[in-house]
Amino acid sequence: MSKITTELLLERAVPRSTRLRKIETLNLSKLQLKTGDLDPRLFSRLRHLQKLDLSDNLLDKFPNSLTLPDLRVLNCNNNKLEDVTALKQFPLLEELTYENNVYLTLNDDYKVMFLLQNLRLLNGKDITKLANHVRRVNSRKLTSKVTAHWEKFFRDQLPEKHTAEQVKSIKEKFLKSVQTNVVYGPSSLSEFTRWRVKMIAEEFLAYSLGLELNSDTEPEEKMDENEEESTESPREAAEDVAQVVHIYDPLVTVTPSKRKRNHSKSSRGKKRSKSQANTEEEAEDVSAEPLHFLQCHSKGNSREDFKTQLWSCVFEPVLDSGARKDPIVSSSRTVATCGGESVCLIDCETGTVLKKYKVATEEFFSVAWTTLTMVISDSRKKAHNILAAAGRRGIVKLIHVAADFCYGEIKAHKKPIATVCFSPTQETHLFTASYDKRIALWDIGIPDCDYNFKASQLLVLEAASIPLRIALVPTCPEQYLLAGCEGGCFAWNIKLDKGQKSRPFEAIFQFPDDESMTTSHRVDGLAFLNDDVVVSKSSKPGCIYLWSWSRTFDTKGKGCQRTVSAVILAELEWSTTDMSYLTLSTCPAKDYVFCGDEKGSVWMYNLSNYTTAWGSAKGKRSERRISPTQILKWPELRVNGEQPPEILVNNVVSDPAFTYLVVLTSVNITAIWKKS
């Protein structure tokens, strides 16, 4: 009979607890525990355990499925551990000690530094710099050596038309040879080097030859019959980190010529224009490379979920960036993404899911950041980033990310919220655009040290149809708001010194449609490229418009619901699909426009050669459509040996410096590219 029971866990909790799921600190030291005593079914109920002491026991290894998703601190001193690789199941681990385990060596230290991306302290020492070297520099060197070994000795051994038996034989020979011949670093780390070389070689073969990785699959987690389902609480945004599937390893070098294009049924037989065909050929000169392909929004953490749609992503602002004054330094490499029942925070460089928030009955459509100066417990003021997330339920969740705490909610609308955005000048002002054909402006207030806050509605903008995208005018963000809607593009005066709390639109914009102008079209993409140039995508196939805000809209004009012809500066050539809701984004600091398509590709437009001319009072419209500077093609991916289904790019966003490009798809895959 196991030494560990529910009663023992409750008794050894610090402080003592009455429920397993409430335990955050647990002391199981000096109990003569062996590996078989760690029952995964029992431990899986410790959903919020953050600190675990297993020192002074008889453990020789860890079971592979303890399921402690929030574990941050682990003490394994004075045991009989022989292997550390099972610790990879604790991705949030920050502090680890395993001194006086006589079978563990320096090689094991390097293994845990590679496996645990968040690890800061190992046996009491800060290993941040060394760990970064191991994860990046060491891995790049080994990847280069593995690739070179294949190219020199094995590539020509595999015939162009090969059988499964030939592939298997080559794989066995290559893995044996590469572990023997690839040497790097001191001899004291030879075991670690062989371990990493084998891992890299298997990943290389998986991508190059379509072979599946030899990864250990973990049994599906089951809820104990005696454990209640978790219900919503003030901390309902659970910090459970989902199982992340790295479908593509960024450390495997992929040459553009080896990337194969996905040919979906819908694309067959369609003719392409000459300029589009030329652009696709030129796009092979890839200036951005894929880093990570993540499957982190799966319902129930299922690896088989390729149906969850991903909708919105936004980079976290840097707290010390001078209140967003310099856009180039105003965001970090951390991005918030949403889709399905969850919101994820992802480190773009490492591909690590830092945090995950789930609401079982929600489908999230939009996220937005703001920075609030809050009073902390000792009466000092400190800036903190707050994330707002909203979706199908019409409720805005307010999350204090650093504290892992969903501190409140605003019941903003009775119908789904399509998109949200914060004012760049009033940090507590949040706009919510809903399927109820209204855009509301809220003051979310600033929470006190106990997270008490008061939200109030300041304004309601009446739309003639469902608003899909909203954008504040950069030169006057407290006076005008644009919205792309199901029935056209509209503008409102949002100045708060006007008495009217509920307001109709002030203008509707009309755009070219064949030989005439029309206001009646779906606008599912809307963003500013700079202070004046608006980028909008409508239901007209194959076209994205760039137009001038200042030359289109006379701010001194009087009367509501005016019809105004947009002053078109240029048209961007895009896909001929009639698929809706594939939205666009801009990178103003680099003069870039991005838009995904129905084939998994990302169309990128560098407009720096045009913006100066457009800025002049006499700037003329570009006569010809502007072709994309580059089209990033979706690489050939294999998941469980098969290609994902047809891929739509719902959204694509870069950080302000255009270092990373985050691509959200219709098949529950987040792709992260890095500009080379």
UniProtKB/TrEMBL annotation:
GO MF entries: chromatin binding
Record-annotated Leucine-rich repeat and WD repeat-containing protein 1 WD domain positions: 287-675
Statement: the UniProt record of this protein carries the keyword Signal: no
Start and end residues of each Leucine-rich repeat and WD repeat-containing protein 1 LRR domain: 7-200
Biased composition (Basic residues): 257-274
One Gene Ontology cellular component annotation held by this UniProt entry: kinetochore
Biased composition (Acidic residues): 215-231
Signal peptide limits: none
Stored SMART domains: WD40
Localization in the cell: Chromosome, Centromere, Kinetochore; Chromosome, Telomere; Cytoplasm, Cytoskeleton, Microtubule organizing center, Centrosome; Nucleus
UniProt key word Nucleotide-binding: no
InterPro entries cross-referenced by the UniProt entry: Leu-rich_rpt, LRR_dom_sf, LRR_LRWD1_dom, LRWD1, WD40/YVTN_repeat-like_dom_sf, WD40_repeat_CS, WD40_repeat_dom_sf, WD40_rpt
Record-linked PROSITE patterns: LRR, WD_REPEATS_1, WD_REPEATS_2, WD_REPEATS_REGION
WD repeats: 410-444
Alphabetized PANTHER family for the sequence: LEUCINE-RICH REPEAT AND WD REPEAT-CONTAINING PROTEIN 1, OPTICIN
Family the UniProt entry places it in: Belongs to the LRWD1 family.
Protein name: Leucine-rich repeat and WD repeat-containing protein 1
Species whose genome carries this gene: Ptilonorhynchus violaceus (Satin bowerbird)
